[in-house]
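Regression test case RT-17, inverse folding.

Input:
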């Protein structure tokens, strides 16, 4: 079975990817399988920059096809924050959620979007990137026990529940990550054979 590296050590992301790729004939390794690998600090100005950096570094280190995502929450009333700093907006999920809710106090516009950019690297170069988004609004308070990150305060468009109130299967059908991954899979299947050649 072909092996591809998901350039992440985040168990939540890895679990989502494995669930979304369950029907694909591919084995997914992660950075946890390469404990000596030390990724560089993220220095990009965009989700695309950071995803490409992570995918390329993993590809070069492992000598295997690799993919990486960079994702985050953009809130209109906060001028797009936390954006690329979403995972660094506080010391943990609860702290980050608390900061967002405090910064939104008194603001009527609670529109937001989750963004995910996936980059694929093969043979030491980034071959393509793919973006997915999920628009929605920020809830007044955290709700739900599923998911991770900002899921307890994000209500996707067309829903009354937060991501954290939805099942994994429901979230994985509509999430920003699922949309980006679907584009990546379509590209691989319809427009190129480079990954097949690798295996």
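Golden output:
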């Amino acid at each position: 079975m072909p092996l591809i590296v998901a350039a992440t050590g985040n168990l939540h992301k890895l679990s989502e990817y494995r669930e979304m790729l369950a029907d694909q004939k591919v084995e997914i390794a992660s950075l946890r399988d390469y404990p000596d690998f030390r990724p560089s600090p993220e220095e990009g100005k965009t989700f695309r920059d950071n995803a490409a950096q992570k995918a390329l570094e993993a590809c070069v280190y492992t000598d295997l096809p690799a993919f990486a995502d960079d994702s985050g929450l953009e809130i209109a009333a906060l001028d797009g924050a936390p954006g690329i700093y979403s995972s660094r907006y506080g010391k943990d999920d609860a702290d980050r959620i608390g900061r967002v809710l405090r910064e939104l106090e008194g603001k009527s516009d609670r529109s937001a979007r989750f963004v995910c950019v996936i980059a694929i690297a093969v043979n030491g170069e980034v071959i393509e990137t793919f973006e997915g988004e999920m628009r929605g609004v920020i809830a007044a308070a955290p709700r739900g026990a599923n998911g991770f990150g900002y899921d307890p305060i994000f209500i996707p468009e067309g829903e009354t529940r937060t991501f954290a109130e939805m099942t994994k299967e429901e979230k994985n059908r509509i999430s920003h990550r699922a949309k980006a991954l679907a584009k990546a899979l379509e590209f691989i299947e319809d427009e190129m054979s480079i990954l097949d050649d690798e295996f």
